[in-house]
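Today's session is about reading a structure prediction critically. Students often jump straight to the picture, but the first step is always the sequence itself: look for stretches that repeat, for charged clusters, for runs of hydrophobic residues. Only then move on to the predicted structure, which in these notes is written as discrete structure tokens rather than atom positions. Here is the chain we will use throughout the hour.
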Amino acid sequence: MNPFDDPDGTFSVLVNAEQQHSLWPSQVPVPSGWQVAHSDDTRDACVAYIERNWTDIRPLSART
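Below is the predicted structure for this chain, in token form.
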């Protein structure tokens, strides 16, 4: 199974310099340029975190 699609997996939320968010399987290494904003939680909890915190989906550079 693809770890990105695992409904029972453990996930993190990553954020890049443009303040874009990504749902990320916890067992997959964090790619360069991204940092963990919310770690080791259920898929649903991470999606809820993204919905609460990423209210403007435009990249930071496009907001100015």
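Discussion point for the tutorial: The longest strand covers residues 34-42.
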